[in-house]
Automatic annotation (TrEMBL), chain A:
Belongs to the binding-protein-dependent transport system permease family. FecCD subfamily. One of its GO terms (molecular function) is transmembrane transporter activity. InterPro entries: ABC_BtuC-like (IPR037294), ABC_transptr_permease_BtuC (IPR000522). The keyword Isomerase does not apply. The lineage of its organism: Bacteria, Pseudomonadati, Pseudomonadota, Alphaproteobacteria, Hyphomicrobiales. SUPFAM superfamilies: ABC transporter involved in vitamin B12 uptake, BtuC. It is a multi-pass membrane protein. Pfam families: FecCD. It comes from Kumtagia ephedrae. It is found in: Cell membrane. Keywords: Cell membrane, Membrane, Transmembrane, Transmembrane helix, Transport. This is Iron ABC transporter permease. GO terms for biological process: siderophore-iron import into cell. Its main location: membrane. It comes from the Bacteria.
From TrEMBL, chain B:
It comes from Kumtagia ephedrae. It is found in: Cell membrane. Keywords: ATP-binding, Cell membrane, Ion transport, Iron, Iron transport, Membrane, Nucleotide-binding, Transport. It comes from the Bacteria. GO terms for cellular component: plasma membrane. Residues 2-236 form the ABC transporter domain. This is Iron ABC transporter ATP-binding protein. It is a peripheral membrane protein. SUPFAM superfamilies: P-loop containing nucleoside triphosphate hydrolases (SSF52540). InterPro entries: AAA+_ATPase (IPR003593), ABC_transporter-like_ATP-bd (IPR003439), ABC_transporter-like_CS (IPR017871), P-loop_NTPase (IPR027417), Siderophore_ABC-ATPase (IPR051535). Coiled coil: none annotated. The keyword DNA-binding does not apply. GO terms for molecular function: ATP binding; ATP hydrolysis activity. GO terms for biological process: iron ion transport.
């Protein structure tokens, strides 16, 4: 990638985000022509109650998931993992399922808290095993992650089946934004705080990405960074699962793409990871709204296709570069 | 001063270090030599608190390494491990800049920037400063990592086989740079070396280890003797003297 391509990428991303933001406000089943918004209370109502919250939710979830993926890749020292497909998302879903079964009256905040704890436990276990796998076999970690995520997801499905709650599991596992309305997504603003925190500790995260020994040598409390990172991953993943459901591939492809273009110095690259994640999720949500209009395809499904394509491109692009 | 007292190390059922006691006064270049598996790297990583101390005591300038905050120690002691496998896509200048992290926690002031440029210059990295690490050769990476350790600006520098991957020119240059750091900046350098003739020329003191024990310790002229080397490395080798420095014909 040439030096000249990098400012181009950043400019494109900012312009794309603005364009996507506007497009997202205008695209949907309800008719919302631009010129009428100011004078028409019903149109304004639609904008404020549905379109704007949905757009913000997509941006917040996208930025958060990209950062969560970045942090997990640093902690696992492996570029091919992301939280929602390596057990974190499934653990969060399992947590919500259990709290729904045991305390049906629990509030959404309560459910999120339980999901976060479950996600934290699930991710810690993943990381503990990942650190024991031989570093000479880098593909064992993502493979183990997929199997592990599959097992936790299967356990959740089995319990849901026994309890006749399968349709609920579907809601948490396949991410979509069609249910997002004002008053039902605001918890996602916490992911913005997590992104800000990641930016605050960007230098520490970069050092952690160089491994434990370099970190200790530079006086970084490596164990504390790992603990903090785990909490960040768990909070973002469980919030996304609770509010919109599992959205795959964002945490996997976005950090890889940005690393290729801008490098891994996170003081420089991290805002662009967040911005690219937000743009990717919002773009896929808009595509999902348009593809079989007036019906919707869930964003999780769209990203399954788009994300897989991007991932293959990253893999083969890497091979071509080497 | 680095004081190592009765340090032993056991990994699984293997004893790596047997009751090592060693005092390294401030100043000077000490070379750790010995065959593979002698425990040199383990000893270095214990001093640099990269591994937990199992028994004994290690004190750097009065600070016990197992009970001193990491940041405080990072301002006194830098460690470069053998092959740290840094996979991050960092530019060389960024990597070297992270050597300043213990001082400013990521914020670089003008003095830091001057030190970074000086380190880049010293290790011949100016032309590579904006390149990503993953585009460099093994030797260039090694130089960038050494420059980062230098840039940390510590009184003590511990280097584990820093000559790995370096060609003859840069190996010699690095040893001269270490010598300069000892003489002009009064730094203390402890370096694991496999090329014993570099130790012969540049070290003030050689500590020879074998099977987890120190078997010889002294100035080059005392350690680099046929009978001592035979004990350490297990075969006899001729030692000649050229310009007052011993030269070990270990390859014949």
């Amino acid at each position: 990638m040439t030096e000249a391509a990098r400012p181009g990428f950043r400019l494109l991303l900012v312009a794309g985000l603005v364009a996507l933001f506007v497009a997202s406000l205008l695209v949907g089943v309800g008719d919302l022509p631009l010129r009428r918004i100011a004078g028409d209370p019903a149109a304004l109502q639609l904008l404020l109650v549905s379109r704007l919250p949905r757009t913000l939710a997509a941006l917040l979830a996208g930025a958060g998931l990209a950062i969560a993926g970045l942090v997990l890749q640093i902690l696992a020292r492996n570029r091919f993992v992301e939280p929602v497909t390596t057990g974190t998302g499934q653990s969060a879903a399992l947590g919500i399922l259990l709290v729904t079964l045991l305390f049906p009256a629990a509030s959404i905040a309560m459910k999120t808290a339980v999901a976060t704890v479950a996600a934290l436990a699930g991710t810690s276990l993943f990381l503990a095993v990942a650190h024991r796998l031989p570093p000479t076999q880098p593909f064992l970690i993502p493979l183990f992650g997929l199997v592990y995520g599959g097992v936790v997801g299967a356990a959740a499905t089995y319990i849901a089946w026994q309890a006749d709650l399968l349709q609920f599991i579907e809601v948490w596992t396949n991410g979509e934004f069609s249910g997002v309305l004002r008053g039902r997504y605001e918890l996602l603003w916490i992911t913005a705080a997590v992104v800000a925190l990641a930016w605050w500790i960007a230098d520490r995260l970069t050092i952690a990405s160089m491994g434990r020994e370099v970190s200790v040598g530079l006086g970084l409390d490596y164990r504390r960074i790992v603990q903090l990172g785990l909490v960040m991953i768990a909070v973002v993943s469980s919030l996304c699962v609770v509010v919109v459901g599992i959205i795959p591939f964002v945490g996997l492809v976005v950090p890889n793409l940005v690393s290729r273009l801008l490098g891994d110095n996170l003081r420089r690259a991290l805002p662009w990871v967040a911005a690219a994640g937000a743009a990717l999720v919002l773009a896929c949500d808009i595509v999902g709204r348009l593809i079989r209009y007036p019906y919707e395809v869930p964003v999780g499904t769209v990203l399954g296709v788009v994300g897989a394509g991007l991932f293959l491109w990253i893999l083969f692009g890497r091979a071509a570069r080497a | 001063m680095i004081e190592i007292e009765n340090v032993s190390l056991r990994l699984q059922d293997t004893r790596i270090l047997h009751d090592i006691s060693l005092t390294l006064p401030k100043g000077g270049l000490t070379a750790l030599v010995g065959p593979n598996g002698a425990g040199k790297s383990s000893l270095l990583s214990l001093v640099a608190r990269l591994q937990p101390l199992q028994s004994g005591r290690i004190v750097v300038d009065g600070l016990p390494v197992d009970a001193t905050p990491g940041r405080q120690l990072a301002k006194r002691l830098a460690i470069l491990r053998q092959d740290p496998a840094v996979a991050a896509r960092l530019r060389v200048r960024e990597l070297v800049g992270f050597g300043r992290f213990p001082h400013g926690r990521g914020r670089l002031d003008d003095r830091d920037r001057a030190l970074i440029e000086a380190a880049l210059q010293q290790f011949g990295l100016q032309d590579l400063a904006d390149r990503f690490l993953d585009t460099l050769s093994g030797g260039q990476r090694q130089r960038a990592l050494v420059a980062m350790a230098f840039c940390q600006g510590t009184d003590y520098m511990l280097l584990d086989e820093p000559l790995n991957n370096l060609d003859m020119q840069f190996a010699r240059q690095l040893m001269r740079d270490l010598r300069k750091a000892v003489e002009e900046e009064r730094r203390t350098v402890i370096v694991v070396l496999h090329d014993i003739n570099h130790a012969a020329v540049y070290a003030d003191r050689i500590v020879a280890m074998k099977a987890g024990r120190v078997v010889a310790d002294g100035p080059p002229s005392a350690v680099l003797r046929t009978e001592v080397l035979a004990e350490v490395f297990g075969y006899p080798m001729q030692v000649v003297e050229i310009d007052g420095a011993p030269l070990v014909l270990h390859h014949r």
